[in-house]
Amino acid sequence: MNNFAIAVHGGAGPDSDSIRKHKKELEKGIQRALDKAYDLLEQGGTAVEAVEIAVRELEDDPLFNAGRGGAINSKGEIELCASIMDGDNLQSGAVAIVKNVKNPITLARAVMEKTSHIYLGSYGALSLAQELNLPMEPDAYFITEKQFDAYKEKRDQVGGNAQAIAKEQVGERMHGTVGAVAVDKKGRVAAATSTGGTEYAKEGRIGDSSMIGVGSYANNKTCAVSSTGDGEYLMQQVTCFHVHALMEYGKMNLKRACKHFIRDVCKDIKGDMGIIAVDPKGNVAIEFNSVRMHRGWKTCDGDSFVGIYQEE
Amino acid sequence: MNNFAIAVHGGAGPDSDSIRKHKKELEKGIQRALDKAYDLLEQGGTAVEAVEIAVRELEDDPLFNAGRGGAINSKGEIELCASIMDGDNLQSGAVAIVKNVKNPITLARAVMEKTSHIYLGSYGALSLAQELNLPMEPDAYFITEKQFDAYKEKRDQVGGNAQAIAKEQVGERMHGTVGAVAVDKKGRVAAATSTGGTEYAKEGRIGDSSMIGVGSYANNKTCAVSSTGDGEYLMQQVTCFHVHALMEYGKMNLKRACKHFIRDVCKDIKGDMGIIAVDPKGNVAIEFNSVRMHRGWKTCDGDSFVGIYQEE
User: Fold this and answer.
1) Which end of chain B, N or C, is less packed with Cβ atoms under 10 Å?
2) What is the set of active-site residues of B?
């Protein structure tokens, strides 16, 4: 039996009053996602099943910016993005600009396993969810008071000037993501990532979280990685595949590749970057440059951690 | 002054009666795109301007599956995708599931240069095009008889069974893309890619061509790359960034990286893969595993080529 392990994140970025206030609930949410995925792995579940169940748990938790509790865009709507990749066969699935689907990560997995497509957006993704009878929810389900207050504050500030807000987003780093990586008892790895986007974003924004290579990447030869932070920088660095490439071509091990990526490759980047990763041997690595990243891991040799701030 | 060069492609894949019949016009289209971009580079234009003008030329040409002449999806509609990346500053822009915008590559460049976003889809991309007064065309402009015949044949075959068609697409490799890479007199590189998608695809399909890292990637440290072929495989290999990684971490030069990628990394892949690439010194590399790839290049030292088949 291979060493199995699960790691999850709930977004990297600056500190806030809301995060300090909800620290315990946020940690409980991370712990629940870890426990559900760990139990599934212990019972012989696959890495793909484990990352899906962990991300579903965080999508259902209104405190995280994914699924319920997603950020509200400049049109007052919530558009969701998600991606999943199976390191065993390099198959992947992703969805973008999706509304009303309770668990975008489950829809992404359905794209991977039940269609010949890989990446569907907007009404095409919605029609697949309907064909497959995936659970749907009305708009009201997704909207939380916290996200509505953030939306209203932005709207009042700019009087609807979406360009000004978009600039501010990059400056204030108003983003959020959830993700999971797992290695199962057979040494297979998988990655999954889901997001509600950025506050007051232009409608139709496609999140980096939904891009294979940027938001998620998994390959049994090296590792599984999920990223979070400033989309612009995650994309220009092709973050998750970058970690794979450091292992495959830079001949680094998992921990060195993750550390080198955040501390050296991205050292001049003025934005938040965070990654969680596992390798097929059961090693876990987490690196980020921001003051906080909601995160945790649980491995079959009894190692476990849940925390929010850098110094924890 | 740095050596400058331009390379373009018009898609890789199997041979067909239509390609044999239109070989001369296809070659003329590639030549026009090369000439326009070359003239611009000679006059001191930037690599970004050169790849945009080359791709625009191919988008306007109804014989190529991008812009006018895009593939018709299973709902009888044409949805376009494009991406562009500036290797000088790693800025990028991309659009997906776009209708009625005459030149999706110009919209992708506008996302890069005029917004704080990177990747917009569907009605969000359309509203940006409207805000910027980019040229729009009615549906009729984009539809060619050749693509309509292909659509009708598929529809008659499957009686509207989109899943059966999607499977067939992967088998028959019905896809098409255009792309360009350039290095300018200042040694800056850029890449651009645009597609009309795959015939009879599910509505809302997001093309790999629009994904930074997969469809396009550019970095002055190494190279600029544009890809074409089977989206599934291009995505799982994160094709364009993969070539960058082979140079950056595998310590290969441009030609070796491209050759190694297609012939070794992808040797067991049962799908079409094609790449065009330039490095900041003005070298050009083109590799593909399919029987044909519409392609050409033109360099400031007088080297020039236009061809379709592998043996040319």
Assistant:
1) N
2) 177
